């Protein structure tokens, strides 16, 4: 292959439009690009938090009632097998220990989720009450500024009559 032929083939297959450090407008590989400020805020209500916390608490209770039951029977079976000289006893004991560790870890996670949802609900309820109190005091303050003696746009002649002056002048 001659050099000229190589250059012609290379030019034929070389991309002509290259854009660096940018994202094309419009549709992308996974759909249109969405700017977070155009999508609105994430909203989670107290009911949603309560459902998550309740589910975590129920799962914790079920794990406490049902999953722990097998630990004592597995430990006694492992002990019995080991006493009889079976190597399976130490393997079963290892599985039982791992089960206990993983169960405790899962139960801790459920408890943390449940507690966090309860705390979050209480904190945000307090925030809501605080904001309402602040807004109601601002409304009362605004109402005081809206009391007018004269026409809107005209000078307020309030207090001038006390000094012997004529209103509006």
Fold topology:
Layout: H1 3-13, E1 27-28, E2 31-32, H2 36-39, H3 46-67, H4 69-83, H5 88-146
Antiparallel strand pairs: 1-2
Helix pairs in contact: 3-5, 4-5
Summarize the structure.
The chain is mainly alpha-helical and 169 residues long. 66% of the residues lie in helices and 2% in strands. A two-stranded antiparallel sheet has the order 1-2.
What key attributes describe this structure?
169 residues; 5 helices; 2 strands; mainly alpha; 66% helix
Number of helices: 5
Shape: flat
Quote the average pLDDT. 76
The description of the largest β-sheet is: 2 strands, antiparallel
Query: Radius of gyration, rounded?
Result: 37 Å
Which oligomeric state applies? single chain
Element-level helix/strand string? HEEHHHH
The parts where pLDDT drops under 50 for at least 5 residues are none
Helix content: 55-70%
Strand line-up across the major sheet: 1-2
Total strands: 2
Structural class: mainly alpha
Strand content: under 5%
Straight-line N-to-C gap = 101 Å
Could you explain the architecture of this structure?
It is built from 5 helices and 2 strands; from the N terminus they run αββαααα. With 169 residues, it is mostly helical. Strands 1-2 form a two-stranded antiparallel ribbon. Helix 3 runs antiparallel to helix 5. The chain is flat.
């Amino acid at each position: 292959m001659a050099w000229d032929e190589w250059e012609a083939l290379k030019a034929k297959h070389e991309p002509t439009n290259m854009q660096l450090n940018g994202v094309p407008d419009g549709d992308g590989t996974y759909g249109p690009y969405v700017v977070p400020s155009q999508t609105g805020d994430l909203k989670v209500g107290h009911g949603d938090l309560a459902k998550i916390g309740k589910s975590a608490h129920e799962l914790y209770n079920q794990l406490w009632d049902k999953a722990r039951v097998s630990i004592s029977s597995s430990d006694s079976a492992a002990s019995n097998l080991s006493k009889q000289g079976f190597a399976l006893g130490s393997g079963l004991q290892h599985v039982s220990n791992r089960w206990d560790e993983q169960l405790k870890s899962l139960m801790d996670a459920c408890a943390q989720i449940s507690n966090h949802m309860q705390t979050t609900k209480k904190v945000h309820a307090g925030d809501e009450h605080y904001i309402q109190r602040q807004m109601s005091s601002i409304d009362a303050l605004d109402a005081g500024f809206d009391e007018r003696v004269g026409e809107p746009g005209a000078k307020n002649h309030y207090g001038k009559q006390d000094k012997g002056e004529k209103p509006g002048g």
